[in-house]
Each structure stands twice: as structure tokens, then as C-alpha cells.
Amino acid sequence: DSAESINTDIITLSRFILESQRYDAKNATGEFSLLLNSLQFAFKFISQTIRRAELVNLMGLAGASNATGDQQKKLDVLGDEIFINAMRASGNVKVLVSEEQEELLVFRHNPATYAVCCDPIDGSSNLDAGVSVGTIVSLFKLLPDSQGSTKDVLRCGREMVAACYAMYGASTHLMLTTGNGVNGFTLDTNLGEFILTYPDLKMPLEFPIYSVNEGNSVYWEEPIQQFFQQLKVPKSELKDKPYSSRYIGSMVADVHRTLLYGGLFAYPSDQKNPKGKLRLLYEAFPMAFLVEQAGGKAVNDRGERILDLTPENIHDKSSIWLGSKNDVEKYLKHI
Ligand code: AHG
Ligand code: MN
Ligand code: MN
Ligand code: MN
């Protein structure tokens, strides 16, 4: 009967964090749970704002550009404000890097030990069409005795302590890693809580999907063109079926699908974007961390592991190839 089918012992994100800290002495200060509370709040607030945007006239351009030259949408600016305010108010963040802020922000009055890097709205070119977008976040611990500077974030990707994204799709999802696997949560809008729905998520070893902006192919180098050609027209048609193409144009949504279904997502460098398009600190790093923790791989054009890279400036970019282990290895073998 229905009373029996309702789970009365659900695991919320807050419960999940508190319980995992109980077993992890090094993270037992509670600072991380407080920070995660503020992150959850920012995700819920941005989620609601996006879902109401059309009704309260928040669609369209804001009229300015950001540090990497993107035109800002009204929701880029609003998402950025919501995120910054939530992090400042949390008291547990000292340093904040945002796609929409040219310089790094330092909250001097916060007696905090975390640095947060964020893409407040990822996929903003899709906003006006109501297509899935998200927020991407990476977390570092400040260097010893740091008062907060770019040194705290211009570090090798392996030094990240946590990464997560929220995807504002048909429902709002939150995928999180603290270096101990990936756990996924779904926002229950009635409860206002993220509920554990994908415990210890592992991605498929391979899956015949490629996800890339193929409109850029004229700007790609020859080996990259050849590689995708080979996915579409396999050499041995008997053994390999052609890959399907899926490209949403929101990294969050394309990576989310890749985590759940498997396959390959790439944004290679090209003549227009010689260093690639996606930014290390708040796009490539956190997604690479999540994908690796789910059993996948993430490398750049040259096959170097993304998490081994170190950005030179806070908006530094990288080419990226990520996804199922075997599919990324197919690329590695090709080069
Ligand atoms: P953002 O909206 O945060 O600026 O990021 C856009 C990124 C990413 O979401 C997506 O994968 C990629 O840009 C799409 O770029 P193209 O439109 O060049 O394919
Ligand atoms: Mn942008
Ligand atoms: Mn983005
Ligand atoms: Mn963005």
C-alpha cells in the first residue's frame, strides 16, 4: 500500500555531509558543511530565478562583456550576484573567482580557509530558449597563512578539495565530489532539499556518443577532424557501429549526460580558440574531477591529464576531452 511505498528515511545533502564527516576526521571541523549549506542555498536561489525569468522579464542581454569576452546575459549578472552574496555571507569563503568578475574577490573579514571558483551560469547562450543550464564550482583550501590571493587558486588541479555542479534541467540536480567518488542529488522543490538519488555514481566504461561543436570543424587541426570522422565512419564497420552525435551547448548538460550515459565530450582548441574555449578553474577542473571520480578520464588536446595542469591566470583556458575511460583512450591512441 501507499504508506509503505513512501521512503520516510531519505538522505538529504546536509545529512549526507554530516554523516560522511563523522567518519572523516580531517574534514570534521564543520566548516565544509556550513560552506555546502551556502552553496545549496545559492543553487536553489539561482534555480528559482531561472525558472521564473521569463515571467519577470529577466531574459536577454545585460549589455556588457566579461573577462573572456562573452556577452553577459541578465541572468549571468544576477546569478553572479546571488552566488557572490551567498559565499560572502557564508563566512567560510575567503577567496572567490567568478567567470563574471575580472579580478579575484577577497572577503577580508571572513576568518575562512576556502577558495571558491565558479561559473554562476554555464550555458547562458541557451537561457532564452529554456534549455538546461547550470552552475559549476571548484573548491580549494587556502595555502598556509594566506590572507587570500591569486596564489590560492593558481594551483595544480590535483589540489582541489571538492567540486560540484548544479544543473537546472527538468529538475535541478547537484553532483558532488570531495575526492571520494561522486554522489548525485535531486532537488525536491516541495521540501526545498537536495535528496540523494545517485549514490556513488560510476559512469559507463564506454558509450557510442560524441559531443562536440562540429560547426568548428573547419578550424580544427587535421588529426582532430580525422578522429571524429573515424567515430562516424568506423574503419571496420562489422566491429564498430557509428557514434551518435549529441551537443547541447551547455557544458553542464553535456557533461551530465556523459556522466549518466557515458561517451565523449570535447571542446578542442581551434584556429579561433588556440587555447580552447573552456576555462580551467571553473569549467575544466571541476568537471575533470567529477568525471575521474566517476571512473572516467579528462585530458587536453595533447593527452595531458587536465588535473595535472596549472592555470597561469584566473580565467585561463584549456582544450578538453572528457568522458568514459575507453572513449577517451580511443582519442589518446589516435594522437
Ligand atoms: P558560459 O555560458 O558559462 O560562458 O559557458 C559556455 C561554454 C559551455 O557551456 C559550452 O560547453 C560551450 O561554451 C559552448 O560553446 P559553443 O557555443 O562555442 O559550442
Ligand atoms: Mn559566459
Ligand atoms: Mn561555462
Ligand atoms: Mn557562465
UniProtKB/TrEMBL annotation:
Instruction: Name the Enzyme Commission number(s) assigned to this protein.
Output: 3.1.3.11
BP GO annotations? fructose 1,6-bisphosphate metabolic process; fructose 6-phosphate metabolic process; fructose metabolic process; gluconeogenesis; sucrose biosynthetic process
Per UniProt, residues of the Fructose-1-6-bisphosphatase class I N-terminal domain are 11-198
Keywords linked to the UniProt accession: Carbohydrate metabolism, Hydrolase, Magnesium, Metal-binding
Q: Which residues form a coiled coil?
A: none
Top-tier EC class? hydrolase
Q: What cofactor does this chain's UniProt record say it requires?
A: Mg(2+)
Q: Which PROSITE patterns match?
A: FBPASE
Q: Which InterPro entries match?
A: FBPase_C_dom (IPR044015), FBPase_class-1 (IPR000146), FBPase_N (IPR033391), FBPtase (IPR028343), Fructose_bisphosphatase_AS (IPR020548)
The record's Gene Ontology cellular component field reads: cytosol
Q: Start and end of every Fructose-1-6-bisphosphatase class 1 C-terminal domain?
A: 208-331
CDD domains in UniProt: FBPase
Pathway(s) where this gene product acts:
Carbohydrate biosynthesis
* Lineage: superkingdom: Eukaryota
* Annotated GO MF terms: fructose 1,6-bisphosphate 1-phosphatase activity; metal ion binding
Entries under NCBIfam families matching the protein = PRK09293.1-1
Instruction: Identify this protein by name.
Output: Fructose-1,6-bisphosphatase
Q: Which organism is this entry from?
A: Lachancea nothofagi CBS 11611
